[in-house]
Amino acid sequence: MADAYAAAGVDTRAGDVAVELMKAAVARTHGPEVLGGVGGFAGLFDASALTAYRHPLLASSTDGVGTKVAIAQALDKHDTIGQDLVGMVVDDIVVVGAKPLFMTDYIACGRVVPERIAAIVAGIARACAETGTALVGGETAEHPGLLGPDDYDVAGAAVGVVEADAVLGPDRVRDGDLVVALASSGLHSNGFSLVRHILAERGVGFGDRTDELGVVGETLLEPTRLYTGPLLAALAQHPDAVHALSHVTGGGIAANLARVLPIGSWVELDRAGWSPPEVFRVLAEWGELALAETEGTWNLGVGMIAIVAAEEAADVIRTIEASGIRAWVAGEVSTAIRDLDGFEQGAKGVTGGAVRLVGTYRD
Question: What pTM was estimated for this model as a whole?
Answer without folding.
Answer: 0.92
